[in-house]
Amino acid sequence: MEVILEVxxxxxxxxxxxxxxxxxxxxxxGEFFAIVGPSGCGKTTLLRIIAGLEDYDEGRVLVxxxxxxxxxxxxxxxxxxxxIFPWKTVLENIMFAPLMQGKDREEAExxxxxxxxxxxxxxxxxxxxxxxxxxxxxxxxxxxxALAAKPKILLMDEPFAAVxxxxxxxxxxxxxxxxxxxxxxxLLVTHNVEEAVFLADRVMxxxxxxxxxxxxxxxxxxxxRDRTDPEFVKIRAEILEMLGAR
Length: 246
What we know:
Elements lengths: L2 E12 L2 E12 L3 E5 L6 H9 L6 E6 L2 E2 L7 E4 L11 H11 L4 H14 L16 H14 L4 E5 L7 H18 L2 E5 L3 H7 L2 E5 L6 E6 L11 H13 L4
Parallel strand pairs: 3-8, 3-9, 6-7, 7-8
Antiparallel strand pairs: 1-2, 1-4, 4-5, 9-10
C-alpha cells in the first residue's frame, strides 16, 4: 500500500499526565481510517497533533514522508462545532481556503463550486448564510470548506456528534459518497462504534488514558453496509468488548 501517514512511537504528556503512550500505526493513501476509544483517552489530542495544532514529546508524525512540525495545507480539519464564518455565505465560506492558499477569486470560486457538487445537499444554497442553515447543513459546509483546501488528509473530530440520529445517519452516507468521489484519505475520531464500522476500512481501538493501541480492526465488508447484517453486528460487538462497553 502507498502510505500517506506514519505515526511512530508517539508520546504526549500534559505536565505529569501521560496521555498518549507510544502509538505506532500507518494509514494508506485513500483509506478511510477511524479511531475509537473511551472518553478522555486522547483521541482528539492525537488528531490535533497530526493536524499540527499541538506538539508532542517523543516519536514522529510523517505526512507523505515529511515530518509534521505545525499546521499545513496538506491537512484539513473538520470540527464538531461546524467552525464556519457566520458573516460569509456558503460559497464564500468554501472559497476561504483556496483564497488563503493564494488562489485568485476566479479559481477559488471554481474550486468552491466543485465542492458544492461533490458534497450532497449544498447545491442551491450558495448564497445562504449559516444562520439560515440547519446543523446538518452547516456541517456539510464545513466538510466542503475542508475539501476546498485540497488536503492530502482530511481529519474529522466527532463531526456528526451535534446532530440528531436521523441526520447523523444521512451525513454518514453522504460522507461515504464524498470519499468515493474524491479518493480522499480520511481520519475520523468518533465515540460511536457503529459509525466507525459503517464508514471505515479499518478501526483503531485505543485503551483508556494513557492511550495505547488495543487493536486495529479491518472492516472487510462490502459497501453500502447493512447495520443489521450479522457480520456488521459481530464486528461492532468485538470493538465494544475491547472498549469494555458490553
